[in-house]
C-alpha cells in the first residue's frame, strides 16, 4: 500500500474543503472558490472533476448568476459533516432508533453503526450528554440505554462475542453469546444470538440486559434463522406454556391489522385465509382473542383446544337456553 505524499494529502484536504463549501451555499463562482481555496480557477476545475469522479453531481453554468452548484444525483455519495452537524445527526438517529420516529428504528440503528466507525472521540461525550436529554412520550418502545444499543450493534457488526447479565427466575445470570441481529418490535428491542452455554439460538430483550460488554473472542457466523420471524414467533408464542394455531377465514392483511405483531404470527394462506399462531398462559385466553376477531375460524393445534371449543359452545348454548327466542316479525 502506497503512503500518500505531502502533495497528495494537500490535494485531498483541498477537495474536501471544496466539498464543504459547495454544501454550504447554493452557487459559487469559479473565482470565489479559487479565492477561498487559495488556488487558480484551473485547479478549481480539476478539483470539481475529482468530486464528480467520486459521485458528487457538481453542475457548472455560464453567464450572470452562473457558477458551480452541488445538485442531487442518482446515488448517495459520502457526506461531509462538521462537528455540530455530526452531533445533531447522531442525536436524531438515537431518537429514531428509540422508536420516536415510526418505522425508522432499524434504519436509524444501521446509520448509527456506520457513524460510529468515524465519529471522533472528542464528539462522543457531547453525543452522550445530548442523547440523555432527548425523551419521548406516548406508546413507543420500552426505553433502552443508547450506549447498550450501540454496543450490541457493534458486536453484531464485528462478529465479536458479547456478555451480559440476564434474569433467570429469581436471579440474574451471566450469558455468553454470539450476537447475530438486533430486532425491533413496535414495543421493544431484541437481540437474536447463539447462546454458548445453552448451545442454541435465543432472543433476549435488550431492556432486561445489564452490564453489557464486548468480549475479546471473534467467531465465525453460524447458519442462522431469519431474525425477525424467529424473534416474533418467540415473543408471540414460544415464551408461553401453551401454543395454538388457527385457520382464520379472512385475508392475512385484515387480521394483521387487528392483532399486534407481538401477540401473534399471521401467515398468509391464499387470498382469503390465514394461519394465526399465538401463545398464552391459558388456552381459553387465546381462544377468546381469536373469537373476538369476528371471523370464522378452525382450530389446527392442539387437539385439546378443539375439545375445549365444543365444551365452551355447549356451555354458551346452555347459558342462553333460558332466554326466549325473539319472534319473527311477519311482513305486512
Automatic annotation (TrEMBL):
GO molecular function: DNA binding; DNA-binding transcription factor activity
Swiss-Prot/TrEMBL keywords: DNA-binding, Transcription, Transcription regulation
Keyword Transcription regulation appears in the UniProt entry: yes
Keyword DNA-binding appears in the UniProt entry: yes
Name the record gives this protein: DeoR family transcriptional regulator
InterPro entries reported for this sequence: CBASS_pafABC_assoc_protein, DeoR_HTH, HTH_11, PafC-like, Tscrpt_reg_HTH_DeoR_CS, WCX_dom, WH-like_DNA-bd_sf, WH_DNA-bd_sf
Coiled coil: none
Organism classification: Bacteria, Bacillati, Actinomycetota, Actinomycetes, Streptosporangiales
UniProt cross-references to PROSITE patterns, sorted A to Z: HTH_DEOR_1, HTH_DEOR_2, WYL
Annotated HTH deoR-type domain residues: 11-66
